[in-house]
Amino acid sequence: MTDLARKTCVPCRGGVPALTARQIAEYLPEVPGWTVVENHHLVREFEFPDFAQALAATNRVGRIAEEQGHHPDLFLAWGRLGVKIWTHKIDGLTESDFILAAKIDEAV
Predict the structure, then answer these.
(1) Are 47 and 79 in contact (CB under 8 A)?
(2) Within a 10 A sphere around the Cβ of 37, how many other Cβ atoms?
(3) Per-residue model confidence as pLDDT tens digits over 27-57
């Protein structure tokens, strides 16, 4: 388990700044396979041999999202699960987004 995956997402109430590009660059190595888009959100696509396994992974991610109170956009297709994460209240990235990504990596 990574250090990030051991942490818990902190609900954002707004009023805090999004991570800077420099801060994002410091977190990104801790979630290999994820890509940062426009310093705004994290994306990753997972591949599976069939629809059933992609659906099962989607459900695991959904359970984690509910436990953490932090909900990514999920895109389910045959053999694929796409995940997009950002903190909506501040329209950018926070540490919690990287925590969620690390937890998803361990579950998928």
Answers:
(1) yes
(2) 10
(3) 999 999 999 999 999 999 999 999 999 999 9
